[in-house]
Structures are given as structure tokens and as C-alpha cells.
Amino acid sequence: GTTLVEWIWGGFSVDKATLTRFFAFHFILPFIIAALAFVHLLFLHETGSNNPTGLNSDSDKIPFHPYYTIKDILGVIIMIMFLMTLVLFFPDLLGDPDNYTPANPLNTPPHIKPEWYF
Questions:
Q1: Residue 2 and residue 75: Cα distance in Å, rounded?
Q2: What is the rounded CA–CA span in Å between residue 11 and residue 74?
Q3: Are the beta carbons of 101 and 109 closer than 8 angstroms?
Q4: How much is the average pLDDT of 94-110?
Q5: What's the CA gap between 17 and 10, in Å, rounded?
Q6: Who has greater pLDDT, 108 or 35?
Q7: What is the pTM of this model?
């Protein structure tokens, strides 16, 4: 109801208090989510995952380190190398061709049109 709206807004209308609260909320929320994810992983690491079949699955497991650690590091290195190659050797690949037209303050390019309400 109105009490909840006034509490969230910080008054009877959207004002500086509302913006301050929402900015603070949007700043703190990612840290809260990261902390909850960390706690979730900690509990999952401590107790293990549930096995609904009731069978012992320890024989099928391989350790995370070094197998998946090396795999993840290799994937990150390949992605960084791909992005560096794209940026350093083909910097204009995704650019707009109109960016290379010499500037002329007396001539507007034909594809630039004002918004419909002008």
C-alpha cells in the first residue's frame, strides 16, 4: 500500500531520497549476490551435492585441480589471444565506414535525419 511506497520513496513523491536509495541498492546488490554465491559454493564444497539415486558416485569424479583449472586457464588464454588479434590486427573490422569520411560542417550525410518529432 501507500505506507510501503512512502517507505521505498522516502517521502510522498520521487525525490532525491528515492534516487539515493536506489543508487545505494544498485551498488550493494551485486556484492550481496556475490556473497550468497560464495556461501552457496562453500556449502556445496563442504557437504557435496545430493545424489537422488542413492548410489556412490565418488568413483566417477576427478579432482577440479589440475584438470579443470588448466582447461579454464587455456580457454581464457585462447579468448584473450583472439580478442588481441582482432583489436591489434583488424581494428577497423567492425567500424562504420562513415567514420572515415572527412568532416565537412556544411554537408550533413544523407542517412542522418532528425527525429520524427522535429
A1: 52
A2: 53
A3: yes
A4: 83
A5: 6
A6: 35
A7: 0.45
Q: How many CA atoms lie within 13 A of 115 on its CB side?
A: 1
Between CA 86 and CA 80 the distance in angstroms is 10
Report the distance separating Cα 21 and Cα 12, nearest Å: 14
Torsion 35-39-44-45 (CA) sign = positive
Phi then psi for residue 102, to 5 deg, are: -60, 140
pLDDT of 22 > 70? The answer is: yes
Residue 10, all three cell numbers: 522516502
Per-residue pLDDT averaged across 21-49, rounded?
90
CA-based nearest residue to 92, from 83, 100, 84: 100
Distances in whole angstroms, Cα of residue 103 to Cα of each of 13, 57, 93, 108: 47, 67, 21, 9
Lookup result for grid cell 556544411: 106
Q: What are the extents of the domains in the chain? A: 1-51, 58-91
Give the active site residues.
Answer: 45, 49, 71-72, 115
Residue 11, pLDDT > 90, answer no
Please give the Cα distance from 76 to 70 (Å, whole number). 10
